Amino acid sequence: MTKQEISIGERVFRIYLDESQIQARIRELAAEIQEQYTHTELAIVSVLNGAFMFTADLLRKLDIPCNLNFIRVSSYSGTETTGKVKTVMGLGDNLSGKHILLIEDIVDTGITLQELIQQLQAEQPASIRVCALLVKPEKHQAPVNVHYAGFVIPDAFVVGYGLDLDGQGRNLPHIYQLKS
Ligand code: XMP
Ligand code: MG
Question: Per-residue DSSP letters for 44-100?
Answer without folding.
Answer: EEEEETTTHHHHHHHHHH--S-EEEEEEEEEEEETTEEEEEEEEEE---S--TT-EE
